């Protein structure tokens, strides 16, 4: 758990606002446009790590303002996806704190390969060691059902 002023990053699944996270992804993220709520919930159940960013108050109430999900075997491979910070909370360093929590998570320390796909956040992810596949990428294949 990382605390930044009134914000906490946690991997406690009981803290997640499932409906709020799904609704945000549906409304704001191009990659989630066709995702059903049932598929979203199933994706969380079979993911290695789900992290939420929460605003807390003096009464210990939490409001989820960010999210990241890691699909992984927890030994050699991981895929980072569904990352967001609600637009009302951007510019506070929360995406960096979320990424610090992802990169330091104990279940993800022995990974040989960690992947993600982004159309617009290369600057953020490069700070944590993510690079383009380069020539090595020519060996990768995919089935994409957009």
From TrEMBL:
The keyword Transferase applies. Residues 2-146 form the N-acetyltransferase domain. One of its GO terms (molecular function) is acyltransferase activity, transferring groups other than amino-acyl groups. It comes from the Bacteria. Transmembrane segments: none annotated. Keywords: Transferase. InterPro entries: Acetyltransferase_Butenolide (IPR053144), Acyl_CoA_acyltransferase (IPR016181), GNAT_dom (IPR000182). This is N-acetyltransferase. It comes from Cohnella candidum. The lineage of its organism: Bacteria, Bacillati, Bacillota, Bacilli, Bacillales.
């Amino acid at each position: 758990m990382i605390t930044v002023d009134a914000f906490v990053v946690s991997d406690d699944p009981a803290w997640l606002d499932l409906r709020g996270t799904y609704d945000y992804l549906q409304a704001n993220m191009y990659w989630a446009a066709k995702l059903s709520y049932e598929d979203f919930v199933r994706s969380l159940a079979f993911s290695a790590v789900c992290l939420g960013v929460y605003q807390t108050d003096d009464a210990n109430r939490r409001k989820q303002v960010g999210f990241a999900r890691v699909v992984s075997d927890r030994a050699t491979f991981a895929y980072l996806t569904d990352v967001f910070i609600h637009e009302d909370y951007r510019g506070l360093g929360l995406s960096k704190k979320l990424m610090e929590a992802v990169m330091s998570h104990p279940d993800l320390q022995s990974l040989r390969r960690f992947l993600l796909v982004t159309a617009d956040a290369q600057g953020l992810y490069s700070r944590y060691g993510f690079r383009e596949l380069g020539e090595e990428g020519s060996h990768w294949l995919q089935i994409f059902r957009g």
